[in-house]
Amino acid sequence: MIGPDAALARCHDLVELARAAGADAADAVASASSSESVSVRLGALEEVERSESEEIGLRVFVGRRSASIATSDFGGEGLRMLAQRAVEMARLAPEDPYGGLAPADALFQGDGVELELSDGAEPRPEDLRGAALATEDAARAVAGVTNSNGGSASASQSVFALVTSTGFARARAAGSHSLSASVVAGEGGDKQTDYAYRTQRHRSDLPDPAGIGREAGERAVRKVAPGLLPSGRMPVVFDPRVGGGIVGHLLGAMTGPAIARKASFLIDRENEQLFDNGIRIVEDPLRPRGLRSRNYDGEGIASVPRALVEGGRVTRWLTNVASAAQLDLPLTGHASRGSGGAPGVAPANVYMEPGTASAADLIADIEDGVYITDLFGHGVSLVTGDYSRGASGLRIRNGELAGPVAEITIAGTLPEMFRALVAADDLEFLRGIDVPTLRIDGMSVAGQ
């Protein structure tokens, strides 16, 4: 796989070729990745897979017109032809009054924070196999587990480089290590499947494989023999594994492009108290070893820790260059970038601060409710805020988790859900968006 310095050099060359072909401005993005994974099933080796990919993308501007193109052909003549085609495409494109590169005086400067995004480890296939077997073995050892979909262990490395004609030139390398297991519990017509996984930047930060396996097995077993749940309005409690999606919907509605397109239920709500005053949602892109950590965004703007929700209110829209220009707002360092196309918007390492009550205390006064462990479907509109998802989980009776329930639908509107949301104290940093256990009263539940 190409290294950061070589990726940076490719981007420099491509930007220079674009300028020579007639581009007024240009940026180039190079990405590369390699991964190795080992999968086992029922104690036997099932698959060993290794993959590598490299790509470079070019975005050019001719006046207010732009075009993007990407390739995996890194030969000198291939890159020259790519630059020429991109400029020709831009000359035929419609004018965009908002597109452009980040200005030089706004670009990230300095060395930034040491984010420790890679430990440089490349585990041997036999080490990955041993970890996968240990994870699956622990899951299969849980009483009630009757079959396995397998266990897996993987390691990956990646490189990202960005060069702009306005003077930005940086590259970064990152890595990750993962363990997972998926098993089946129950017999006959009542078979239930569940899983557990962990991903960390450093292999030493992964939990013991046995713990991940036990979690997968226990989650599957507790879903066996689901009962019926009556329809009605009731408290709904979200397991942290699925609760992060609620914050994800908020973030999607906070993006500058969504606001600019009038495609967000948050329009005209920027000064409204959406959550309880005690709810605080934070972004920390500079967290060492974070899964989405970065010193700068996909347009070269510094990434800065900040509160996204403070005192129950959103603090700002999340912008890239185009949406900032359209909305007449400052750049916030949230541009996301692939090899092709215009930049999008994505935050980094978002979490909801924990509350003061334990998860057990959060459900202690619920006479009849539901604890959600799985969500299905895509019935969420970020334009209207309507929320409707298929779900399964555990019934709550008299303050205790009771038997499993399945084939239910939970519904409401995101603004109503935000206002009713209460957070427990069990926050863990495991994903790109992390939340503690969440309780939302008064949701509509459709059972059987």
TrEMBL record:
GO terms for biological process: proteolysis. Residues 122-223 form the Metalloprotease TldD/E central domain. It comes from Qipengyuania citrea. Residues 26-90 form the Metalloprotease TldD/E N-terminal domain. It comes from the Bacteria. Pfam families: PmbA_TldD_1st, PmbA_TldD_2nd, PmbA_TldD_3rd. This is PmbA protein. Belongs to the peptidase U62 family. GO terms for molecular function: metallopeptidase activity. InterPro entries: Metalloprtase-TldD/E_C (IPR045569), Metalloprtase-TldD/E_cen_dom (IPR045570), Metalloprtase-TldD/E_N (IPR002510), PmbA (IPR047657), TldD/PmbA_N (IPR035068), TldD/PmbA_sf (IPR036059). Transmembrane segments: none annotated. GO terms for cellular component: cytosol. Residues 231-447 form the Metalloprotease TldD/E C-terminal domain.
